[in-house]
């Protein structure tokens, strides 16, 4: 696979010498080129630290980082020239206009003057670009910061929590912008977020960071299809749960009246559903609804959290 | 490197640091104007510039202005939370910090030049107002020579000030160092002690006196060493 980002056994601890805490604990990230990769995890999981490690802002304690095929331990600016990034906050100078902010980076990258107008147009900020950034809303700042990452048509965009602090409309606009970027400029987009539903809507690939480790990673469709779940509603919820448990299954309540049941790996989902239905009907339970429950990133996230807790308990 | 220096200059546009750079020499010159207007007569240029403007600048305003200007320059990045963006640009880290150092040193030189330009204009205006123009020649060559000595001797403490301002996000720390350094320097001069000629804040004051050579050489060599240490230290740090 042609990778835009590849890390191997990446490790980083932060803190004082006496109180060091492992933030990244052996991460093997694989981000394919030309895709949107959603890097998800709860607050404090280490997403921003990972982003700073990838960009060479922090030096890893161990492991390697390769961006666009270039080893970041060796002259990182060679790769950084082909990357646009914003980490954690828009990082704009309040006393300057949007245009002036972009112009500083444009000059640093040695790009033509027309480049600023081009990227402002992409993010829909042309009309407001002459205003001082201190007068911008947070959404406008995020858009301007995104425009800055687009300067020079980078091959890889790295966006850390680009929807942070935005209202629902701003989130929706930013989501549309990010989703269209691979087609519009041909770039790989690596976007970190703790908003799972947002990532689910824009990403082709996803990686879940939990406690400094990748809990799962892969194409989103495969991740979401990795476990098929049956959702059913009966007239006797408690009895249904008991019967299914006796059958050696692990049913769980989903909402007030529904029961969720994972289809065991390797088993045909249709046959499994039919067998469950028959067993309940034989026991005199009326099955009102039996459907496949669509998996979401949130479900995967919860399962990974549960697995983590079980592992900790063990 | 030139692109980074130009970017640093562009960041100053419209900033508090630029306003400060332009206003502080004007306020100092305004004090000289007030002095001659209050006095009702202007003595000669040599006395006004050499015995009032320059000592005031060297002993108190220049070190305080250096501390404040270095702090304001560093705060441009800290307030915008722009370090991550800056350090993720395709430049070596030392170049990013070196560009800031160049801009601060150039700004301090410009402030000193502006001081004498403003002083000449305001004192001339004051002389016209009270009907008594200062006599003699402003001796700009001598003033320029004194200013260059000041800047050279001040390279050590101005580098230390910038280092601390860039190193700590809390602006109180570099300002406190600046105030403490300035007060210690003044105390050393007032007590006439020669035991603390090595103290960076004293070097600038000594550069305006006879036997200035050791202060200038010390300031330049110390400044170069401090710059190398600053670039090495900041290049390894994670600034936020």
UniProtKB/TrEMBL annotation, chain A:
Give a GO molecular function annotation for the protein: ATP binding
TM segment ranges:
none
Q: Which PROSITE patterns match?
A: ABC_TRANSPORTER_2
Please tell me whether the keyword ATP-binding is annotated for this protein: yes
Pfam families xrefs: ABC_tran
Q: Which residues form the ABC transporter domain?
A: 5-236
Give the keywords, sorted: ATP-binding, Nucleotide-binding, Transport
**Record carries keyword NAD:** no
SMART domains for the chain: AAA
**Family according to the record:** Belongs to the ABC transporter superfamily.
PANTHER family per UniProt: ABC TRANSPORTER, ATP-BINDING PROTEIN
The protein's name in its UniProt record: ATP-binding cassette domain-containing protein
From TrEMBL, chain B:
A Pfam match is ABC2_membrane_4
Q: Supply the CDD domains for this chain.
A: ABC-2_lan_permease-like
- Keyword annotations: Membrane, Transmembrane, Transmembrane helix
Q: Which segments cross the bilayer?
A: 52-76, 97-123, 143-164, 171-192, 212-231
Can you tell which superkingdom this protein's organism belongs to?
Bacteria
Protein name in UniProt: ABC transporter permease
This protein's species is: Aurantiacibacter sediminis
């Amino acid at each position: 696979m042609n990778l835009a980002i590849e890390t191997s056994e990446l490790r980083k601890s932060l803190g004082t010498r006496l109180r060091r805490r492992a933030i990244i604990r052996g991460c093997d990230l694989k981000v394919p080129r030309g895709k949107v990769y959603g890097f998800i995890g709860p607050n404090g999981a280490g997403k921003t630290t990972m982003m700073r490690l990838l960009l060479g802002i922090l030096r890893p304690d161990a492991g390697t980082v390769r961006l666009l095929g270039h080893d970041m331990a060796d002259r990182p600016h060679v790769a950084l020239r082909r990357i646009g990034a914003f980490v954690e906050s828009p990082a704009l100078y309040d006393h300057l206009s949007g245009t002036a902010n972009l112009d500083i980076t444009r000059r640093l990258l040695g790009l033509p003057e027309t480049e600023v107008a081009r990227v402002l147009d992409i993010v829909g900020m042309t009309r407001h670009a002459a205003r001082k950034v201190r007068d911008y809303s947070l959404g406008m700042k995020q858009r301007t910061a995104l425009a800055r990452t687009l300067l020079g048509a980078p091959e890889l965009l790295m966006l850390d929590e680009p929807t942070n602090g935005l209202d629902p409309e701003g989130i929706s606009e930013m989501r549309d912008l990010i989703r269209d970027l691979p087609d519009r400029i041909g770039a790989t987009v690596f976007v970190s977020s703790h908003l799972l539903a947002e990532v689910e809507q824009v990403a082709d690939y996803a990686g879940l960071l939990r406690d400094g480790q990748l809990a799962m990673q892969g194409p989103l469709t495969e991740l979401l299809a990795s476990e098929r779940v049956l959702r059913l509603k009966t007239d006797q919820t408690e009895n249904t749960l008991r019967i299914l448990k006796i059958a050696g299954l692990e049913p769980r309540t989903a909402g007030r009246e529904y029961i969720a049941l994972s289809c065991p790996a390797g088993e045909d989902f249709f046959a499994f559903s039919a067998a469950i239905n028959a067993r309940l009907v034989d026991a005199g339970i009326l099955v009102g609804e039996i459907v496949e429950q669509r998996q979401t990133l949130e479900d995967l996230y919860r399962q990974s959290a549960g697995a983590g807790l079980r592992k900790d308990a063990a | 490197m030139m692109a980074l220096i130009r970017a640093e200059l562009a960041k100053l546009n419209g900033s508090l640091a630029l306003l400060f750079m332009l206003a502080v020499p004007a306020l100092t010159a305004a004090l000289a104007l007030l002095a001659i207007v209050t006095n009702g007569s202007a003595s000669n240029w040599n006395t006004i510039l050499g015995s009032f403007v320059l000592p005031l600048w060297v002993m108190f305003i220049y070190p305080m202005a250096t501390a404040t200007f270095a702090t304001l320059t560093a705060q441009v990045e800290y307030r915008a939370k722009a370090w991550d963006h800056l350090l993720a640009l395709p430049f070596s880290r030392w170049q990013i910090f070196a560009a800031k150092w160049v801009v601060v040193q150039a700004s301090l030189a410009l402030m000193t030049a502006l001081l004498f330009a403003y002083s000449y204009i305001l004192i001339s205006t004051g002389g016209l107002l009270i009907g008594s123009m200062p006599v003699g020649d402003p001796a700009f060559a001598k003033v320029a020579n004194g200013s260059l000595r000041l800047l050279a001797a001040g390279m050590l403490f101005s580098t230390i000030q910038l280092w601390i301002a860039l190193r700590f996000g809390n602006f109180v720390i570099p300002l406190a160092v600046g105030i403490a350094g300035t007060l210690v320097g003044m105390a050393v001069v007032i007590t006439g002690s020669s035991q603390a000629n090595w103290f960076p804040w004293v070097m600038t004051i000594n550069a305006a006196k006879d036997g200035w050579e050791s202060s200038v050489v010390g300031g330049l060599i110390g400044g170069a060493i401090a710059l190398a240490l600053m670039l090495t230290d900041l290049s390894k740090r994670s600034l936020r």
